[in-house]
Please model this.
Amino acid sequence: MLIIMHSTATQTQISAIIEKADHLGLRAHLSRGFERTVVGVIGDTRPVIRSQFQGMDGVREVVPITKPYKLASREFQPDDTIVPVNHLRFGGDEIAIIAGPCSVEDRTQIIETAHAVKEAGAHALRGGAFKPRTSPYSFQGLGVAGLELLAEAREETGLPIVTEIMSIDMVEIATQYTDVIQIGARNMQNYNLLHAVGESHHPILLKRGLSSTIDELLMSAEYILSHGNRRVMLCERGIRTYETATRNTTDINAIPVLKHRTHLPVILDPSHSTGHWEYVNAIARAGIAAGADGLIIEVHLDPANAASDGDQSLKPEKFAKLVREAKAIAEAVGRSLAPVGELALA
Ligand code: PEP
Ligand code: MN
Model:
C-alpha cells in the first residue's frame, strides 16, 4: 500500500509511520518526490492493516497498490528513477549509449574497441567475460581474466564498464571490476541471482527474458528492488515470436508500456533484438523515438571473425553513424545525448 503524506508532514510523523510498519512486520520504503512524500509499505496490507495507518498524524491518504509489482510501479514512485553510474545519469533527459563487443576476446581487441567506441561517442563500454551460450561447445568467455581486461580498458579510456554475470559467486568480484552488472535474458528469472544483486547496491542492467512478458520483467526487477537495491535499469532485447527473418522481434511497444508502468530507466538492445547488423541502426532510432533512455550496441573491429554475435555487430564507423543519428532523433523528441565525460577514477 501507499501511505501518502500531507505536504506539511514532519519528519517525526514520517518516522512514526516507518516504525509502525516495522512493528507490524512490514517493510517500508520512503520515497520523497518533487510533489509528495510517500511511504510504500510491502507485506500483509489487508484493509484491516491499512486502517491502522489511516488515522495517523500527517497521513493524507492510504491507497492499495493495484499492480503485483510494488516498488517498481509508477504508483509507488511517480518520478523517474535516475541511476547514477559514475559521471553518467541513466533515466534523465539525456540518453546514454553503451557499446562494445559481445565477448571480451583478448587484450588488444578490448582495448582497441574501447578506444574506437569512445571516439565514436559511446558513454560506456560493454563486453562479456561470462557468456551464456546456447551451445556448450561455443566460446564461453574469458572469465575473471576478461573482467581484468575490462578494468584495464576502463583505466585507459575512462569509460564505465557494463558486463554480465551468471552466478551468485561472481557478484562480489563483479562489483570490484565493473560499474554496471548485467543480468542476461536467460537469467531474468534466476531468483537467487536477483536476490544476490539486490543486496549489492551496484547498478544493475536487467534484460528481458527471451519469452517473458513485461509484467514478468517487472516482477524480476521487484526482486532486486525488494532486497534494497534501487539502481535498476531495464533492457528490452527482443522476444521470441514466430518471425524468423530476424533473431528476435523488437518489442518497441515495451518501451512506452514500461515508461508508463515503471519509473525505472529503459534501455534498448537492438543488436540482440534484430540479430543482423543491417537492422541495428534503424531499430536504435525507433527505440529513441519511442522513449528509450539509452541503447546497448554490439561493436566489433572485425565482425566476421568475432568469437560471438558477429552477425549483429557493427564496425566502429557504422557505430559512429548510429550515434550521430541517435543524437538527431533524441533532439527531435526533446532530449539529448549525454555529454561524453571522463570517468572519475578512484
Ligand atoms: C549479451 O548481451 O551479449 C547477451 C547474451 O544478451 P541477452 O542476455 O539479451 O541474450
Ligand atoms: Mn551478444
Q: What stands out?
A: The two ends are 40 Å apart (CA to CA).
